[in-house]
Amino acid sequence: MNTVRLEKILDKLEKQNLSQMIISDPAAIFYLTGRYIDPGERLYALYISRSGRNRIFINNLFTVPEDLGVEKVRFSDTDDSMALLCDTVEKGVPLGVDKTFPARFLIPVINNSGASDFRVSSICVDEVRACKDEEERDFMRAVSAINDKAMARFRGLIKEGVTEEELASQMLAVYKELWADGFSFEPLVGFGANCAMGHHGPDETVLKPGDTVLFDVGCKKDNYCADMTRTFFYKKVLSDKHREIYETVRQANAAAEAILKPGVPLCEVDRAARSVIEKAGYGPNFTHRLGHFIGLEVHEYGDVSSANEETAKPGNIFSIEPGIYVEGEIGVRIEDLVLITEDGCEILNSYSKDLDIVE
Amino acid sequence: MNTVRLEKILDKLEKQNLSQMIISDPAAIFYLTGRYIDPGERLYALYISRSGRNRIFINNLFTVPEDLGVEKVRFSDTDDSMALLCDTVEKGVPLGVDKTFPARFLIPVINNSGASDFRVSSICVDEVRACKDEEERDFMRAVSAINDKAMARFRGLIKEGVTEEELASQMLAVYKELWADGFSFEPLVGFGANCAMGHHGPDETVLKPGDTVLFDVGCKKDNYCADMTRTFFYKKVLSDKHREIYETVRQANAAAEAILKPGVPLCEVDRAARSVIEKAGYGPNFTHRLGHFIGLEVHEYGDVSSANEETAKPGNIFSIEPGIYVEGEIGVRIEDLVLITEDGCEILNSYSKDLDIVE
Questions:
Q1: What is the CATH number of the domain that holds B330?
Q2: pLDDT, tens digit, 9 for 90 and up, residues B285-309
Q3: Do B104 and A99 touch (CB under 8 A)?
Q4: Cys-Cys with A226: which of A22, A147, A336, B92 at CB 3.0–4.6 Å?
Q5: What do you get for the CA distance between the two ends of chain B, in Å?
Q6: Taking a C-beta distance cutoff of 8 angstroms, is the pair B163, B203 a contact?
Q7: ipTM of the complex
Q8: d(C-alpha B227, C-alpha B335), whole Å
Q9: What CATH number does the domain containing B69 carry?
């Protein structure tokens, strides 16, 4: 058990007048124990308490190291695992649970644990996870470096007559050759007008000269997730307008990254990019928030949007991904992951953002 | 809305003294409405009621057909969607919810809906889904036929020096060429001793003569899932023992399939296969249940195991997948999907189960 991380979570719980919580999200349990289990439908839960009586509930089907740094409660399918969990809960005081804790466990806990009140307290875990420690920063640097190398290889796959799907189907092998463990999400590959569609999945569209080629791609390594977007042009840029769109997105990306440091409100980071795009007359064509937090999961708690008045904090890692989408014509997006450091920021992706015409 | 399916679910609820339920599982909502949405963290729920006041709650971000056959309640991220849902619930009577309904929705519903009691009632949906109607049977026949064709293609990829991962990485393209929509699950590819490891993921292991080659694979088409396993030998069968193991598994598969018809207890189906393996002296090497139900999801409610005394019913579709696993040496599994018909059964996979030595 990572006691530094645990203490931070218990402190957050205390501020919400909670002394105990059941954590069931496998990513959150990994964050604390270093052990990943996909329990399927079975109970898998980490009970944490200010009293120090922490326990992890794991079905016998799953193998775990002898020493997890926390008391293990093992059970089989025929045992009443919910009774074991309910017995552990402290009676007469409120209990926090994960936002994803499912009804099949929550209803028995509500009926039988004896806690006085039940509250979703995921935020206490999420806020701690949003500030990556040194170990996590290194994992995020490493996986982003793989993603940079992969992007160069993906660019090399662009050729006459290729379809989006043919490109996408080669990506996993590239990642594996670069020692990634797999995708962090299914790659988005778009040509031309398809780039203007939100989350367009690769299809049979054939590449043609003048198309943009958008790669929104990421891999996983040691459980941490990369995420990056680059947009290339194939053979030529069809018009000054297309060139202007590309350069505007690039400037928007740069404008946001230029102001990153601890204390900057995240809505201002969004504003920095958005105002570049608005000034160029494409405000309505930037249809989404600027970015999302990332780490053990591709989308973690926290975002970079006009509505988020929270400030950037050391250890935050999020995407900066402005885009301009002109329906039926073109889409351009440029995305980096960035790390807020103690005194500024570090851009985790170094792959070039210069306008690049692939011959 | 599929009113025939809805009525069956409402009847099941009534037997549990429930007149209303919130369904949130996207597969279950698809089953009733024909519309699939992945809502991420957002509320997506179908309220059904004996009173006929059915409503579906869908965020404005998701596009849906004008006519879903059920009243739509649309909302945006800034609306209090939980209040809309709670207002709809009938007060003073119990409410059923899905087993997966997450705490972030369930706790507000418990605190604010005014229902008298809260129960997990997924079983009422699951039992109806376990009996496929004619439309679903056709989808399952079609996707299984694709899987048969794909198996022949996968066999053709077996060659000197290939790794498990190289084989697995070619499978998606094969499925797409055969007009499948994608994988129903990540393919399991194992060589030799790796076949003896439960759910071994494809790795860098290189094929060598005498290895078994196990493909546990499935595709998706029109939202329905295929699942099949075949085990080949590469170049030669190393010993009479290996041949005996293969033939035993084959006989176990045949013995189970031979007794399938409505009314047969599922535990007896498991027994039919297991006793063949036990008689051959490999009882301890068949380490799992005989099969699982399947449809819109690869693993659905219902299984074929020694513990399940339920009887087979017309429309049930499940796997028959006996296996013998000798640690460090060999693993063989042969799996078909089967459909219980009104008077017997239909084996949905026709790919040969004869011992096949690939040259």
A1: 3.90.230.10
A2: 999 999 999 999 999 999 999 999 9
A3: yes
A4: A147
A5: 52
A6: yes
A7: 0.83
A8: 8
A9: 3.40.350.10
